[in-house]
Amino acid sequence: MTLGRLAIAADGRRLLSVNLRLLASLYAFLGIGILGTQLAGSVLPASGGPSAIGLGKELVLGGLLARVVALVAWFVQRRIQQIATSAMASNDNNCVRWKNHFRAIQLVTLLIIIRSIVGTVEYVQGPDGFVISYEIFIYVFDAALMWLVMAIYTILHSGRLVRDAQWQKTMISAKD
């Protein structure tokens, strides 16, 4: 959603490699699929059979890994898109501070990737693992990272970018 607002505010929809609606639908579908996989993996061991328990663990791990892969793929795609957009953008003043918002999207994605990797490692290690044995990992790699995500989006909210871009377009058209 933030990427869509950024593309609209920067008038850069033409520079995106994928239609915004298709991209949003794709990531919503991926999110639901990953959540469903993890949910099925969590419920499956309730049947009590040893094969069901093993399959459940594999499903949960597959969902966790799929989330990390999807986030990394998105991050790499956005980084390539940023390089292409920066090279192709000829009019930097068509939008207010769009580069800061793009950097914020990348930073937030990176923080969530780190959080997802730590969660995956925690799950792989199991209930007696090193990560789950120390609360500091929960504070640093879960709570602090999500607090940073919240703070970044509070400071650089994409709705403000769209509002500022619309105001700037209104001012430019009023001058003409």
Automatic annotation (TrEMBL):
It is a multi-pass membrane protein. It comes from the Eukaryota. The keyword Membrane applies. The chain crosses the membrane at residues 20-39, 59-76, 104-124, 136-156. It comes from Xylaria bambusicola. PANTHER family: DOMAIN PROTEIN, PUTATIVE (AFU_ORTHOLOGUE AFUA_5G09900)-RELATED, PROTEIN RTA1-RELATED. One of its GO terms (cellular component) is membrane. Coiled coil: none annotated. Keywords: Membrane, Transmembrane, Transmembrane helix. This is Uncharacterized protein. InterPro entries: RTA1. It is found in: Membrane.
